[in-house]
Amino acid sequence: MRPFGMRDKLGYLFGDFGNDFFFILVSSFLMVYYTDVFGISAAVVGGLFAVARLWDAVADVVWGRFIDTRKSGKHGKFRPWIFRMSFPLVISGVLMFVHIPGMSDGFYLAYAFVTYILWGTLYSTVNIPYGSMASVISENALDRTSLSSYRGLGAAFAGIIVNAVAPLIVFKNNVADAGGFLTAAIIFGILALACYMACVGLTTERVVAQENDGEKVSLRATAKGLVKNKPLIAILLASLVFMVSSLLIGSVNVYLFKNYFGNAAALSIVGVIQTIAMIVAMPLVKPSVAWFGKKELVSAGMLLSAVIYGVLYLLPNVTTTGFIIIAAFGMFGFSFFNLVVWAFVTDVIDYHELITGLREDGTVYSIYSFARKVGQAIAGGLGGVAITGVGYDSALKVQTQATLDGIYSLATLVPSIIFLVVFLILVFFYPLTKQRVSKLSSDLAEKREMGKK
């Protein structure tokens, strides 16, 4: 079998490259599409996001459990599902942005619910096997850190394309354009499909765990193991909170630049800067993890982001350019979470096997994804309610000063507080320090060797 190498890293990069063409388009622009094109209130959109994300969270666990009951074939256990389900996923993504003129408010609301929930469900069928696959591409901890970094880089590349290009397509004269949204969805859908095919073609599944017997795959045994998995619980909580902040920033930034700064096109610059920040951080990940550890590196990044966004909140009358320059340092800080978090997940999967004897990549990853979806649900609901709460009215060409100040606080003070909470969770509750991860690897290798005897 071909040894682990750059081909696997690039293949894994393409997976999240494909995922995030639609994920970033949806998280950054779907709310403004629903409010300004469909005419749905921000509060109702927030409710839709919350309901859909909670449904998706359940779908993740069900699909993860389903994947774990499948046997590995000649093409692996996870890659075939990425191939099969990517086609309906992309089609459903395009359908979300189809606008039929002249329909009733009830029709638009129903159409939004059906297409958005369908897309979210199909997203689970691709993302769960993709995320689970990292633990079977290589057993080596540093290889997995590289996969996590390349996954983050793939998301960053999608981010730079979507955030740089989408505002230029979906806004015409600073106004949301229905035809522009559909055009963007079709373009990104084609690119996403190409990336999924590259992911399937370039990666290789090398680790084939011993099949669990019937008793071990019972839900009761799995649940007991999950409850005992303290690193899993901590990273679930940290990721949930981080997702709230990440998606809230993405949603609110549209209103911040469109209304507060009066420059929706500047969103393109923000997308570019965020990707540059991640690219700058990426080569620092592997040596920093080898020297300090995953937990230690990501905690420092979270603290930096909390401080930077707090500074932005306190600065009076900051210009668009000044805001972007200062925010870039905050983006650099939270880039480490995005680059390393998937390596956290593979450690947690290994820990689950160590304490239970069960190798349940799909189930454990889906539980982690469950927490992220709950975070998305909270962020979607919180974003809609918060935008409404500060007085945003899509019918007004110019928002009130109180509304603009509220939008600015949502984009700065709230993320600062949330990043600080993530820092505290990692420092005080996540137990897998550099030394403990090293011991985990040796203990697991010893346990597997004993199991063969």
Describe the model.
This protein is an all-alpha fold and 453 residues long. The chain has one domain: Growth Hormone, Chain: A (Up-down Bundle), CATH 1.20.1250.20. Helices cover 81% and strands 1% of the residues. It is built from 14 helices and 2 strands. The chain has helices at residues 6-36, 42-68, 79-95, 105-137, 141-170, 178-202, 219-228, 230-260, 266-291, 294-314, 320-356, 361-389, 401-429, 434-452, and strands at residues 171-172, 175-176. It has a two-stranded antiparallel sheet. Strand 1 and strand 2 form a beta hairpin. Helix 2 runs antiparallel to helix 12 (361-389). It is globular, with a radius of gyration of 21 Å. The model has no long low-confidence stretch (mean pLDDT 86).
Q: What structural keywords apply?
A:
2 strands, Growth Hormone, Chain: A, 14 helices, mainly alpha
What Rg, in angstroms, do the CA atoms define?
21 Å
Number of domains in the coordinates? 1
The CATH topology annotation reads as: Growth Hormone, Chain: A
How much helicity do the residues have? over 70%
Topology:
Blueprint: H1 6-36, H2 42-68, H3 79-95, H4 105-137, H5 141-170, E1 171-172, E2 175-176, H6 178-202, H7 219-228, H8 230-260, H9 266-291, H10 294-314, H11 320-356, H12 361-389, H13 401-429, H14 434-452
Antiparallel strand pairs: 1-2
How would you sum up this structure in a few lines?
This is MFS transporter. The chain is mainly α and 453 residues long.
